[in-house]
Amino acid sequence: MILRIARKELTEMARDGRLRWATGIVVSLLLAALAAGWTRYRDVQALTVAAQASARQHWLAQPPRNAHAAAHYGVYAFKPALPLSFVDRGVDPYVGVFAWLEAHKQNDFKYRPAQDGSAVERFGTWTAAAVLQLLVPLVIVMAAFPTFAGEREQGTLGQLLAAGVRTRDLLLGKALGIAAALGTLLVPVALLGAVALALGSEVAALGDTWARVGVLALSYLLYFTVFVAVALAVSARARTARGALVGLLAFWSLNAFLVPRGVTDLARRAHPVPSALEVNLAMERALSATGDGSDARALQDSVLRAHHVSTIDSLPFNFRGLTLERGEEHSYHVFDRTYSALDAAFRSQDRVEHALSALSPLVAVRALSMGLAGTDYPQHRHFAEAAERYRRMLVRTMNGAVSSYAPAGPASAMSSDSTLWASIPPFEYDAPTVAWVLGRYGWALGVLALWAAAAGALALLLARGGSPLARERVR
Amino acid sequence: MTSILEARRLTKRFGEVVALDDLALSIPAGDVFCLLGANGAGKTTTINLFLGFLAPTAGQALVGGLDVAEHPLETKRHLAYIPETVMLYRHLTSLENLDYFASLATGRAFEEDELRAHLATAGLPEDAMARRVGTHSKGMRQKVGIAIALAKGASALLFDEPTSGLDPKASNEFSGLLAMLRERGAAVLMATHDLFRAKESGTHVGIMRRGRLVQTLGTADIGHVDLERLYLDHMRD
Predict the structure, then answer these.
(1) B92 and A8 in contact by Cβ < 8 A?
(2) Which pLDDT belongs to residue A226?
(3) pTM for this one?
């Protein structure tokens, strides 16, 4: 019986011209977003690989020179895009994808289209994730708003109940019908995406990619379930189809815009984060605060005493290497303090967001989507920390080389060659695994599952109590 | 003879308003009982109570001996409901509508031949069967509704103003359909304003006023003119 109802809903939806247009447009947008995301991913991936290789080439090809000069020459670190990033670009356009690693400085990431682009670019970052998060729910609303309310208005609901149909069967049949329609539209698109992924992934990473795809599919499935259930619940109680549509559009805009926007603003207000400019100025001040020379003199005195010599030229190593390394260590403290304070503020903001995500399933699915695509802020930090570790290793090695130079002598003697450059391994980055992501976003899956269960229960409850009469009237 | 539709002290109040007051009614197989009365007399309320769309304030509505309030699904197996305009899915054809409602009501699948036979019995023209009902006239929709009742094998039919808005020819065809349903042993309860059709096709008429059934009589015992005079007498304050 449920199948019979589902089949009739499908037939009706297929014959509804407006719905055909709306779904056609949404599916086209989804395909276009996927195609654009995919070509972009391929281009960026190719560029990244080429740029990383050429940066390495330049590093190795340095002429013999002072190791500290080499540290200033530096290398570039590129964040490798995960294949799934073509579905969701996340924060990448805002935080950048590569950094110049050099002595003394922890540089900001570069290539931030959101910063460099024109105003149009802000709308240009239209990804598959946006279609899935905003437009597919709109299609669900359009398909589901008349299910009960429209039949009540037309009088067919009375006809059905007079035929002895259980409201529960009716609800499940209608839910199944909408699910089947959505499946018909989205499954082929998802398969297409999966083929693209399989073609674009390195074989070694495929296992992790599929795990991410699986969780991503589950997340969106739960998200759509919420919408189908809420739409059926509202339709089951609304007196008219119009009323159901208005109510559902209100829910849609609350979910899509008002709550997420409000949550972000609230989190910012509760845990303010200084602007990038303020942070950089504060760091500059902290870094230059050392330069009064008294520390350097104290260091020199203690080193000379320890080695029982009276001048730095008599030391068994080049003293400059040591001062450079000490300078670096001081800057590490400043960087670490600044970034851990920033991260703590971001984490506090996240906690506010988690708490308020109960108000809008979009907040949860957005977090999951970015996390699984590898384009969220935590994974950006994960990469930035790996790059910083590499930078410190590189600078430390170079400073060590400076220390090994003759304590005194001509500048031409204080030089290293390609053996030193080659002793630095190429920068390699292991992106976090799906388990790492789930550890951070388990809450979001939980929130979505709760939403789906609660909305389903509400729909069952309201459908059971719904009267076939538009209003109880006396005649 | 056991009655298929029965009302026992059936009462429905909406707040202060008494829509139906202490109705007693018994309709055996083969009877066509016509409820007459002004708008608001309680005719549609009676039908909604038999359908279980409304819960009675007091008393019982019984279908096939079962209390509607206690057995909402079982009692509907016997019932067919045909409102003034039979509500169907406009994007589906007559056959698809019939197939949908009949298979949901009976829980079994139907062959197309069987569905066509029911539509033909209900008098739907052959060329209208595979057409979407969005373009159907009121009379054609009614025929699809009756075909649903036939496919379901309903033993009790509830009509709510079936002839209002029908042209004289369709109205006449409706009389023929009622006779056919009677012969098949169905019990019919019909709310109507159509005194002529009630006298012509009914076996009994009941006159309602402000929720009360004020008089019941057999149509064989009274002429057209007398029925109209009697009705108007009851409507006078």
Answers:
(1) yes
(2) 95
(3) 0.84
B13 in contact with chain A, both atoms CB, cutoff 8 A = no
Strand order in the sheet with B58-63: B17-28, B3-14, B58-63, B66-67
In this structure, are residues A325 and A397 in contact, taking their beta carbons and an 8 Å threshold? Answer: no
**Residue B237: per-residue pLDDT:** 67
Contact A165 B104 (CB under 8 A): yes
> Which CATH number characterizes residue B61's domain?
3.40.50.300
Assign A112 a pLDDT band (cuts: 50, 70, 90). low
Distance CA B144, CA B123 (A): 9
Angle at A176 between CA A174 and CA A181, to 5 degrees: 95
> Amino acid letter at A115?
Q
B45 → chain A, closest CA residue: A475
Which residues span the domain enclosing B97? 3-235
Rounded-to-10 torsion of CA B161, B166, B169, B173 = -40
DSSP of A345-380, one letter per residue? HHHHHHHHHHHHGGG-HHHHHHHHHHHHHT-SHHHH
DSSP A62: P
Spatial distance between the Cα atoms of A25 and A273, rounded to a whole number of angstroms:
40
Choose among A12, A15, A474: nearest Cβ to B40: A474
Q: How many domains does the structure of chain B reveal?
A: 1
